[in-house]
Amino acid sequence: MVFEGLSQGLRNSITKLRRAIIVDKRVVREFVRDIQKTLLAADVNVELVLKISKRIEERGLLEKPPGMLDRKENLIRITYEELVNLLGGGERLEIKENYKILLVGIQGSGKTTTVVKLGKFLKKRGMNPKVICADTFRAGAYEQLKQLSEEANLKFYGNPNEKNSLKIIEEGIRKFGGEGPILIDSEGRHKFDDEMMDEINRIYEKITPDLTLLVLDSTIGQDAGEQARAFAEKCNVNGVILTKLDGSAKGGGALSACAATNSRVYFIGTGEHIDDFEEFNAERFVSRLIGFGDLRGLLEKAKEVEFDEKSAKRFMTGKFTLEDLYTQIEQISKMGSLRKLIEMLPLGTKIPKDMLDIQEEKLRIFRIIMDSMTKEEMQNPEIIKRSRVERIARGSGRKTEEVRELLNYYKRMKKMMKTFGDERRLRRLMRRFSGI
Ligand SMILES: Nc1nc2c(ncn2[C@@H]2O[C@H](COP(=O)(O)OP(=O)(O)OP(=O)(O)O)[C@@H](O)[C@H]2O)c(=O)[nH]1
Ligand SMILES: [Mg+2]
After folding, report:
1. Are 226 and 216 in contact (CB under 8 A)?
2. Cα 52 to Cα 58: distance, rounded to the nearest angstrom
3. Cβ-contact 290, 81 below 8 angstroms
4. Ligand 1 pocket, 135 CB below 6 A?
5. What domains can be seen in the chain, in order of their start residue?
6. Given this model, what pLDDT does residue 307 score?
7. Tens digit of pLDDT for each residue in 239-270?
8. How far is the CA of 367 from the centre of ligand 1 (A)?
9. Is the CB of 270 under 6 A from ligand 1?
10. Is the CB of 271 under 6 A from ligand 1?
């Protein structure tokens, strides 16, 4: 698997963290130190490692966990977010049917292979990509691309007798009639030099590609950043394709260095075969490193408690009816316990203990009782006097005492809501619930 070391290191740190009994400064620091070691081993630049570990530590110690997360889980969430940032976010590259796409890069970086991989990828997406060989420099370039294109079932154009690459491209575009994304393989040079850049620029000006993608060999590690920057200065690079991530222990270095120089990596090559290619998305990638199943549950949990603003407002301004109580009980049963909900409110401690400990079973009974009430009773519980209590008890098959218990519970809840129902607190509460 690609990035075995990085993935294993991260997973080990998380397992260790999960075993800790409490999350204090010491535990957070140790966790961060573990992450540092893992990132350094994956060739991530020291400065970047220090920056990200500082952020994880600060946020881990300061931030209140959103939603239903505990502090450990929140630390994992923060680590995930910071790693996604480190590796370059999660944007997708838009490729349209009529695009001309030029691939550039130094010799041996994997351009020719990648042209075909990208072509096959787009074909799987239902497009009809065409390939042009504009490399007139490398002996055998024409044959190599022609053969690979046949293997991938892609239409191909090239001319081994023509030395002018621009002429070949123009002829190819004419032949394909501007239909389907056209992928153009360009020539590499021995090293990154001005002559090659001028050549690329010359082609660029004439054919005005819709996208110019830089192919970078990830085995150069952190130097990928420098190379990406140099190319970006000379020509209009729209994004990066990182190759050879399979054979490299330096993938983390290459990926993070690209992100640090604002060169977005959109695709990665993960092997010699034409199917060893995938779209790169930092969010998905980091999820996979950490263990996707684990993380998805955790991120969902962070968002789980989302009250709709309107009902929260009513709830906090004292306009609290049995209908609101009903919704609230539904929320609670979704979340497990009232205590958990209340603990997340900024005023949890003010609530009498016996109200927190109300049993789920009791809430279930309350719900059954309310199902026997009329809409009017739900909206104006004050009208529920003795005869109505008896009718509701009969209708719901419960005791009259239980109906009274519900009404008492409702009154206490309403009173309590009123006491902390000012706007500022409400806003704070809303922020807390939306996890911002
Ligand atoms: N393991 C691995 N090998 C790759 C990958 N991408 C390309 N290669 C290999 O890298 C070598 C060079 O690939 P090419 O596609 O010919 O590179 P190029 O940039 O077109 O080279 P020039 O045309 O000479 O500039 C070939 O042996 C490919 O099989 C990859 O993702 N993983
Ligand atoms: Mg080539």
Report:
1. no
2. 10
3. no
4. yes
5. 4-90+294-302 (1.20.120.140), 100-280 (3.40.50.300), 306-434 (1.10.260.30)
6. 44
7. 999 999 987 778 899 999 999 888 999 999 99
8. 66
9. yes
10. yes
